[in-house]
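Q: What would this chain look like folded?
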Amino acid sequence: MDARRKAVVLLSGGLDSATTLAIARGEGYEPYALTFRYGQRHAIEVEAARRVAGALGALRHVVTDIDLRVFGASALTADIPVPKDRPASQRARGIPITYVPARNTIFLSFALAWAEVLGARDIFIGVNALDYSGYPDCRPEYLEAYQRMADLATKAGVEGRQRLSVHAPLLNMTKRQIIRRGLELGVDYSLTISCYDPGLDSEACGRCDACQLRLQGFAQAGIGDPARYADALAGKGK
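A: My prediction, written as structure tokens:
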């Protein structure tokens, strides 16, 4: 395949990134999946990413280590309780404690480096600006700024050999729309996990912001969530 059709896809093992990988493949790209073990408390997502990468035909899947626990300041990387059972009105206000400082900037920088090595001109990221948790690095203006920076950041770019595009195909989609699109593309959502605070047996809590947004999306799509929950009725919309 032409090198211009290679794409680096950021893959967390969650619903959004799995759908993004399926979209990249469906658009004819040769996907190279990139996953991070960054000190997150929900590290079970790395195994989910392996399952998704295999099922969706990633040409190569790289899992790399960054320890963001050295900075902390997030419920995902420090000994801070993950918020549970927050109503939608509360989730819509402010930036939650599950925000990991500069995470997407760090992830995209690694993707940019790998893309330059591969000769790829495309990076896919599953950020969403509608049904999301208020993170600043999921906004359109953030992606636009990163795109401008990426144009200046690489040797290949400066020499005119590479014009990189950052794709965020889910940016303006609701969770319901994302799920519907993923199902059309053959995504098996039972392979994914979105939970911020899963149990030792890998069951999703059903109560954190990520679980609530996911469950809401499946409910609005009129489909049961195939993920395993601590409360077995949660995924059935009960």
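The radius of gyration is 17 Å.
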